[in-house]
Structure formats: C-alpha cells, structure tokens
Design goal:
single chain; alpha/beta; Rossmann fold; N-(1-d-carboxylethyl)-l-norvaline Dehydrogenase, domain 2; eight-stranded mixed sheet; six-stranded mixed sheet; 28 helices; binds 1,4-dihydronicotinamide adenine dinucleotide
C-alpha cells in the first residue's frame, strides 16, 4: 500500500518500522515497466517525499512478474518532433538519475528479470545492485541498436562500475549479461536466488559497505589512458560499421572520452551531438526496424494455441536443427527419420547447441536432450500439436508422407512442410482436406536465423496459419506471413542478388572485391561468401528456379559444381575454406557502383514480391528481408531504402530485373 497522502499511479512507497523504504514500480495499464514521461515525473515526486522525510535506506524493485524495467518508453521516443525535444527527453532522465545518485541515504536496485536501457541506468544511479539468479535476468544498455545513446547516465556510470573496456563492449554492441556475469564483472554487488532476495537487499543496503573498487588497470583506462582506449574502440567500431551509416556507436565513444558520459554537454555542431544523432536517417530507420520486429511478434498474439509437442520428420540439416531449437525452447520433440542412424547426428548437433545456449549448465542440457526423442517409427505423429515435414525435396515422397500423416494426426494438429521450392498446393493435393497443409519455412542455420516464413497455400486454413505464427513465437522466432510463390519472399530476393554477384565474378571482378563492396554497404556477409556457405549445388537449383530472366547460370558456377567444389561444405567453392573461414586474397579495386549494381536485382525482386502480394505490404517486405537476410538495418529495409533514395520509386514495373538501366550499366564497366 502506498504511503498515505500520495496519489501515484505507477510507484508504491512503503516504509518499514526500522526506516527502510521499499519503492516498487508497477506501470499502470502495462505488462512491462517502461520509463515513460509520467513514470519519471512520479519518480521525481517520490524523491521529493523522501527528501522531506529521508528513509534509513531505499530499495527500488519491480512489482511486475515480467521483469525489472525494460527501458525508456520507445513510443515516446518515436514521436519526438525535433532535436530540441530529444534534448529535453535526455535531460529529464539525466537530471533525475543524477538526483537519485546524490541522495544521502543508501539506495539499492533489486533486479529480477530484464533490466534494460533506462532501467539499468536507474539501477546504476543506486549505490548497490542485487541481481536475482534466474534465466530471465539480463542487464544491458541496448540503445545503440536503436541508433541512440545511453544518455541517462549509463555512459558515465557503467565505465566507472565495470571499467571502460567491458563497458564500451556492452554499450557498443547492446549485448546483455546474465545475473552470474553481472556479479562476476562487478556490475552487481550480489547474485542471489529468488527466495532470499528481499533479505539480501535488506542486509546489503544497510551494510554501509563500499562498492568494490575497479582494478588498477581499469582505473588507468578510465583516467589517463582514456583517449587511447577511445582510439582503439573507434578502430574496432570502424571495422564493423561506417560512421555515416551508424553515428551512435561513435558518439558513445566520444561522449564517454571527451564529455564524461554527458550527452547534454556535447555542443550541437559536434558530430557526436544529440542533434547529429537525431538528424541521422539511421536513428529513424533503426526505430523502424524495432517497430517492424514488434509487428512480426504480433502475428502470434491473440491465438489460443499453446503447443507442447512437436513431431519433426526428416532429421537432416533442417529437420534436425528445427527439432533442437524446439527442444531448447522447452517443447517435447519426437524426431523421425528412416533409421535411428540418421537421427543420431542430429542429436549430437543438438547436444552442442544446448551446451552453447545453456552455457554448460549440465541440468538444462540434460533436460533439453531428454525432451528430444528419436522416433524412427513415427509414433509421435499421433499425439503432436505441430507436425513439421523436412524430408528431402521430392514431391512424391512428400505427398505419400502427408496422406499417411493426415490419417494419423490429431484433427487439430498443424500439418506443415518446410519445403523451399515445391508448390504447397501440389503437396496438399494428396490430402482429403487440403486446407490443413501450410508451410513453415525455416532458414539455415535454424538456431541463428530469427525469421520463419509462414506460408499460405491457395487453400490453407486461416486458423492453422495463425496457430503456426503462435508456434513460431513459442520457439522465439519471428513469423512472416507469405503467400505460396516461388522462393516465397526471402529466397526470391536473395536468388537474383547472388546471381548478379556471380555474374560480376564471371566478368573478372575478384570475389573479394564483390564481397567487400556489399559488406561495406552493411550486409552481414558478402554474396559470394554467402553462395559458398549455402552450397553451390543449391545455388544452381535456386538460380534455375528464380533467375526470372531465363539467362543461363554463370559458367564458373557450373564448372565448380561439376568439379565437386560445392563451397564451404566441401572445403572449396569460389573461395578455399579452412576452419570454417574463407581464405581471401587481395580485393583489388572494385568498379564504382558495384554494390548498387548487385543490390539492384534484390531491390527489384522485393518490389515485385510486394506488387504480387507475396507479402501484404512494403513494411512486411522490409521486415522479412532484414530478418531473413540481415539486409543492412541502417537502411530501414530494401523498400524503405529505395523510397528514400528516390531513384527506384515503388510501383515501377519490376517483373524483370532491369539490367540495362543506365546507372547500372555504367557501374558495371
Ligand atoms: P537433408 O537431405 O539434409 O535431410 C533430409 C532427411 O529426410 C534425410 O535425413 C532423410 O533420411 C530423411 N527422409 C527422407 N525421406 C524420408 C521419409 N519418407 N521419412 C522420414 N525421413 C525421410 O535435407 P534438408 O537440407 O534438411 O532439407 C529438408 C527440407 O527442408 C527440404 O524440403 C528443403 O527444401 C527444405 N529446406 C532446406 C534448407 C537448407 O538450407 N538445406 C533451407 C530451408 C528449407
């Protein structure tokens, strides 16, 4: 119950007899705690009350089961109209948390569950932090991923707490640490199990103990060596992202090294200023990517479907990994293949994945392996909520399998194919009720790729599609609804792009130059390396299906395939591979506009997918291409990119890739 006399909507202040005060955040009308303007204003008024009657100590916690605090209110940030508004927003948090840091009584943040962005900045403004050792506890300053900076004191306090090397690593990548690591690196003072958390908080906040000091090397790096550390960090960032594409990480380094972590102290004309960041299209585009991601997450919502058992048929590259990801996420999986011997390698791969994901926690690894049941006879199909077929790409085999499955499966079970290139309608033709078949198209490597395409065939049942999206969310994937069409969305745009890259190589441009140009644009991997990774045999098949312009595949590609050089998996393709990495020679000089030339077919194919209704709208196309291929997030996606550049207007005829467009022709020579 709130201290009498206070009329707060979001915060509850409770005082114990010995003078210890508990302040809990439970943001009204929301399942998660976000630091909206209203929440921050109320916190100010809580501090007023505490100033008037100071407690012996203060513990700040969350009343929400979802976690501590998820960060600032992104909606409010998205609606900022000017750089001046951005400055006001930053000043609000900076000033309030400075005030919290300066109070005379000891303060402690009791962190259970997510503690992100502004939430961690609030926690850093407290004298102590206790983290609760649970799988959901994670601490991060992910602002950089939205193209902004941790301006509410994070850039000032995190380096002081854990040293600048670690702090910059966290702030420049946005990655999170779990409870144990938070304690290990000195971010948290204690890491405790949930049952003792309140007592631990009581004891620590009343202890009067000093925070553990930084090791001397970290103190040097935070002091006299600061500019050297900043130079090194700048070099590292430059290897990953160009300043004109991503100004925020550079600004973070500058704000920390030149302005004591105070974003407000940077003058407007400085390249690290809030004004520069606010004016950058990247900031808008990264917010756009965030909203696109939320939209994809929404597809699984509001459907009454809680799958517990998945039956996967085909324990090869895809089926084995789909089964592993499902088991990792807590589902029971029966994995069927023709023999136990074919299932065994998938289980061995899964064990490695679980080791990595559960960071060596033997019990979790054991439980996940126990959930993955080899099932050569296919008994699991009778009980499963979701059945996923991932056998080899053969229409007759798939039809035979599904007509058998239709008889065995529960009437409400999802029947899904992972096919990449067969028409869903052709497979569904074997069913008494063709509406039951849908596609759930995963990407390789399944554990790494965030997207799945949920494919609607001509007759697919709408409820089954919604349930498939809910299933995708259950295993933490982003579902993209697509219509059944060659290559769906992602392969339809990747195919022509990879082909154009190979044509460039055919013309004598070094693969290294091709890849460097696209990596510089912001792709996670160059297209030639991607072809080698996917496999040259698959590229030939996909090229035939997707080329669109009827042109023959590049000679070099065919020659490599007939020599058995299929790329990474055989140790040689366009590159020689060793230890899972391509050996690169010198890139040489690339012709001007090389990236534009290779991107043009991808952009055109994306437009075509929108026009032909493969996805419902341009935003979904952008979401799919970003999360399915890693397409440069700073651009906001291929549709947004061409719209903002204005030279490839949406709505132009794009059914055939226009390889004779003057700009492209000129670039190619
Ligand atoms: P794969 O060749 O690695 O594995 C296929 C497995 O299915 C083999 O272990 C085989 O023994 C088993 N199998 C074949 N017929 C069977 C039957 N009647 N009953 C039980 N098991 C049977 O194939 P991969 O690459 O995993 O592809 C599987 C499916 O996933 C294909 O439809 C493919 O188009 C699709 N796909 C493949 C991707 C890739 O990158 N490899 C990406 C996305 C989809």
């Amino acid at each position: 119950m709130n201290q009498p006399g206070n009329n707060w909507q979001h915060w509850t202040l409770r005082r114990e007899a010995d003078g210890l005060a508990w302040l809990e955040l439970d943001k009204a009308d929301s399942t998660t705690n976000a630091l909206s303007a209203a929440v921050m204003e109320e916190l100010g008024s809580v501090l007023d009350v505490l100033d008037a009657e100071p407690p012996a100590a203060l513990v700040i916690a969350s009343a929400k089961p979802a976690g501590f605090i998820a960060g600032a209110d992104i909606e409010e940030f998205s609606q900022l109209a000017s750089a001046a508004d951005a400055r006001v927003l930053v000043a609000r948090g900076w000033t309030l948390f400075e005030r919290l840091a300066d109070v005379d009584y000891p303060t402690l943040a009791l962190i259970r569950g997510h503690c992100l962005g502004g939430g961690l900045e609030l926690a850093l403004a407290c004298r102590y932090r206790i983290v609760v050792d649970e799988p959901g506890t994670k601490l991060a300053l992910p602002e950089v991923m939205l193209g902004i900076v941790p301006g509410w004191g994070g850039m000032k306090r995190l380096p002081d707490r854990i040293g600048p090397a670690l702090a910059l690593d966290l702030m420049l990548t946005g990655k999170s640490v779990d409870a144990k690591k938070a304690k290990r690196i000195g971010l948290a003072d204690d890491c405790v199990p949930p049952r003792v958390m309140e007592n631990a908080a009581r004891m620590r906040v009343r202890s009067g103990s000093a925070n553990s000091p930084l090791p001397w090397m970290a103190r040097l790096m935070n002091g006299p060596l600061r500019s050297k550390v900043a130079d090194k960090a700048r070099k590292q960032v430059a290897g990953r992202a160009r300043r004109e594409h991503y100004p925020a990480p550079y600004a973070i380094i500058d704000m920390w090294s030149r302005f004591e972590g105070n974003a407000l102290a940077v003058p407007a004309g400085d390249p690290a200023s809030l004004e520069t960041i606010f004016a950058s299209p990247t900031t808008r585009n990264l917010l756009r990517v965030y909203h696109l991601q939320e939209r994809l997450k929404g597809f699984g919502k509001g459907v009454d479907f809680a799958p517990r058992h998945v039956h996967v048929i085909g324990a090869g590259v895809m089926g084995g990994d789909i089964a592993a990801v499902c088991a990792q996420r807590g589902l029971t999986v029966t994995l069927q293949d023709q023999t136990v011997e074919r299932i065994a390698p998938a289980i061995a791969r899964a064990a490695k994945l679980f080791e990595r994901r559960f960071k060596g926690d033997r019990r979790q690894v054991r439980f996940a392996l126990d959930r993955m049941i080899p099932d050569p006879q296919g008994h699991g199909a009778v009980r499963a909520d979701v059945i996923i077929e991932a056998i080899f790409e053969n229409l007759e085999a798939k039809r035979a399998l599904f007509s058998d499955l239709e008889r065995k499966a529960r009437p409400d079970a999802i029947l899904a194919s992972n096919t990449s290139s067969l028409r869903l309608e052709d497979i569904a033709g074997c069913l008494t009720d063709p509406g039951r078949l849908i596609g759930i198209h995963f990407f390789n490597p399944v554990a790494m790729m965030p997207l799945v395409e949920v494919v609607a065939g001509e007759h697919s049942d709408a409820l089954a599609l919604q349930r498939a999206a809910a299933f995708a969310r259950r295993i933490d994937k982003l579902p993209l609804p697509v219509k059944s069409a060659p290559g769906f969305l992602v392969n339809a745009v990747l195919g022509p792009y990879m082909l154009e890259a190979l044509r460039c190589v055919e013309e004598g441009i070094a693969p290294e130059a091709v890849d460097a140009a696209l990596v510089e644009f912001g792709m996670p991997m160059g297209p030639v390396e991607l072809v080698d990774t996917v496999g040259l045999d698959i590229a030939v098949a996909a090229g035939k299906a997707l080329a669109g312009d009827g042109a023959a595949p590049p000679q070099k590609l065919l020659a490599l395939v007939s020599a058995g050089k299929l790329g990474k998996k055989t140790g040689e393709g366009y590159y020689r591979w060793s230890d899972g990495k391509p050996k690169r020679g010198k890139a040489g000089t690339a012709p001007a506009g090389l990236a534009d030339r290779i991107l043009a077919p991808l952009l055109a194919a994306t437009r075509r997918c929108v026009e032909e209704g493969v996805v419902d709208d341009a935003d979904l196309a952008d979401a799919g291409v970003i999360f399915g291929t890693g397409f440069a997030p700073w651009s906001g996606g291929p549709m947004n990119y061409q719209q903002t550049r204005g030279n490839l207007p949406v709505g132009t005829d794009s059914t055939v890739v226009d390889r004779s467009a003057p700009a492209i022709q000129q670039d190619a020579t």
